[in-house]
Every structure is written in structure tokens, then in C-alpha cells.
Design brief:
This protein is an alpha/beta fold. It is 43% helix and 21% strand. It has a 6-stranded mixed beta sheet with strand order 8-12-7-11-9-10, sandwiched between helices. A 5-stranded mixed beta sheet has the order 4-3-5-13-6, with helices on both faces. A two-stranded antiparallel ribbon has the order 1-2.
Length: 302
């Protein structure tokens, strides 16, 4: 017995639309004999003719044929919609790994995951955090699709998209005399005990800010993370300098902090989305890049 396939159903719909086997065959790029055999086989399988055949006249659907072609057309449309949605669903379920510079993580990871799950509930998303070197190595190895980071230490093998720009700021404990000022110069804080985050490119970038103004910073403490630096400052161990601005005015251990602007003219540091040029983003990963760009536009990163 004939095994009816979607192709047979498409053939029947095509003949009904064109009113002729020869015209339908030309339209769907099938030989006329093959199309005639397929239609005859379909009718045999159903047990009734789908078309009224009159010599010299177009093919006309029988009553059963009209019902069959109507339902067949809907079936084909449903199948096409299913294939398209399944393809999109499969794309969303394909794992996407996003890297995030560790200082930006507390500001961005929560909103990124929440917004992604809201917009794409089936998304298979993993976020990894690390320093600049870790993110670069993992992207070059194809283990991370793209990263959100500062534009530090990124070479020409990466593509970048700027999503924000952030000015550095000074952190003080509340009793420090500088809290009476609205802005403070690098010349003022250079001789003071400084607490800087010791994260490779970030540390040397901060030192470079002083050197550009012909100053030598007095680094009293090097902190492994931003939050450790904030805690050390809050406990009176020195003055902090950072680009990443926490939304909290308290350190992890609950002590207050004061933030002040830098009086010197210092260009803002771009926050960028970075990807390996040799590892093109999937269509869904590209959608996530757009989503993160949108998130950064309303998150207060500055």
C-alpha cells in the first residue's frame, strides 16, 4: 500500500491551484509523469478521486477533493510554521556562554539572566566571570561566545561593541577630610594611602592615570576584588579608585562609603561587548548582544 508523504499532499494542492497536471509540474519542478503517478497513487490510497477529469478541460476538484485540499493546505501551513518555530526553538536551546568581567558581574549578571529568561524562556544560558586575561583566553579557545568587559587589553583579533562609558571615581571613608569636597584631584590623593584592585590590566591602567599627570601613586594595599577594596576603604585603610560604581553606599561588612568625582579631565572607559572574530556569533547569541546593549542603556553603570 502507498505510504502517503507530505510531498504527495503538496502535489495535490499544487494541481488544485493550477487546474492542470502539466502546469503544476512545471511550477513545482517535477516531471508530469511523476506528478500524475503520485496523484493517482494518492487517490488509490484514499479510495476516491480527488479530481474530475474531462478531456480538454481543466481538472476540477470533487466534493471530497475540495475538503481534502482545504485541510491539506492548512496542514502544510501548520507544518511550515512548526518547522520554522522548531528551528528557532532549537537555536534558542543551543548553549550560549557569556563572559563577564568580575567587577561588572554584580551589576549586570542578574539583570542579563532575568531579562533573557523573560524574553527567551527556553534560552540555554551560562555566564562565566573572570579577569581580562581569562575572558580573552576563553574566547580565543571558543569556550565563551562573547564577553562584557572594559576595553582594556583587547587586541585586533576581537570585535567590540561599546555599550556604555564610565568615568572613574574616588571612594572615601566618611571621616576622611576629603569628603567635604565635591571633587578631588589626582594630585591630592597621590600621596595618600591608596587601595587599588589588583587585577592585571586594571591595576596598571589606574597607575597609568597618575603617570599621565606626572604623579606617583602611594599604593598602600592591593585588593583581590572590588568588594574587598570597598571594605578596606570603608574601614579607613586608604582611598579607593574605581570605574565600576556599586549601587550600594555600604561595604559588604555594612560600613558607609562616600564617592566623589575626580577633578582632573580623564576620558571615560568604554564598557564593551567583545567576541572572537574567528568565532562568529550564532543568530541567537547576536540577539543576546542586542538585549545586553538595551539593558546597559537603562542600568546606571556610571
Amino acid at each position: 500500500m502507498l505510504s502517503v508523504s507530505l510531498r504527495h499532499i503538496e502535489y495535490a494542492v499544487a494541481v488544485a491551484e493550477h487546474g492542470s497536471v502539466s502546469t503544476a509540474a512545471a511550477a513545482i519542478h517535477v516531471s508530469q509523469p511523476a506528478l500524475s503517478v503520485a496523484i493517482a497513487g494518492l487517490e488509490q490510497h484514499i479510495g476516491n478521486p480527488l479530481f474530475i477529469r474531462r478531456k480538454g478541460s481543466p481538472l476540477v476538484l470533487t466534493s471530497l477533493g475540495r475538503d481534502f485540499v482545504d485541510r491539506a493546505s492548512r496542514l502544510i501551513n501548520q507544518f511550515e510554521a512548526l518547522v520554522e518555530s522548531e528551528g528557532d526553538l532549537a537555536e534558542r536551546r543551543r548553549p550560549v556562554v557569556i563572559g563577564c568581567y568580575e567587577d561588572l558581574g554584580p551589576l549586570l549578571i542578574g539583570p542579563i539572566i532575568a531579562q533573557t529568561k523573560q524574553s527567551y524562556p527556553d534560552a540555554n544560558l551560562t555566564i562565566r566571570t573572570g579577569d581580562f586575561d581569562f575572558l580573552s583566553e576563553e574566547m580565543l579557545a571558543g569556550q565563551i561566545d562573547f564577553s562584557v568587559t572594559y576595553d582594556l587589553g583587547i587586541d585586533s583579533s576581537f570585535d567590540t561593541r561599546e555599550i556604555a562609558s564610565i568615568h572613574p571615581h574616588i571612594l572615601l571613608y566618611p571621616d576622611h577630610p576629603f569628603t567635604r569636597r565635591k571633587s578631588i584631584s589626582l594630585n591630592d590623593i597621590a600621596p595618600e594611602p591608596l587601595v587599588l584592585v589588583d587585577q592585571g590590566h586594571s591595576l596598571w591602567h589606574m597607575i597609568g592615570l597618575f603617570r599621565e599627570h606626572h604623579l606617583s601613586p602611594n599604593i598602600a594595599h592591593r585588593a583581590a576584588t572590588l568588594e574587598i577594596m570597598r571594605s578596606m576603604v570603608a574601614n579607613g585603610l586608604g582611598i579607593g579608585l574605581s570605574y565600576t560604581r556599586s549601587q550600594s553606599k555600604l561595604s559588604y561588612d555594612g560600613k558607609p562609603l562616600e564617592a566623589r568625582k575626580i577633578a582632573d579631565s580623564i576620558p571615560p572607559e568604554p564598557v564593551v561587548i567583545v567576541s572572537n572574530r574567528k568565532n562568529p556569533l550564532s543568530p541567537f547569541a547576536a540577539k543576546l548582544v542586542d538585549l545586553i546593549t538595551e539593558i546597559s542603556s537603562y542600568r546606571n553603570l556610571t
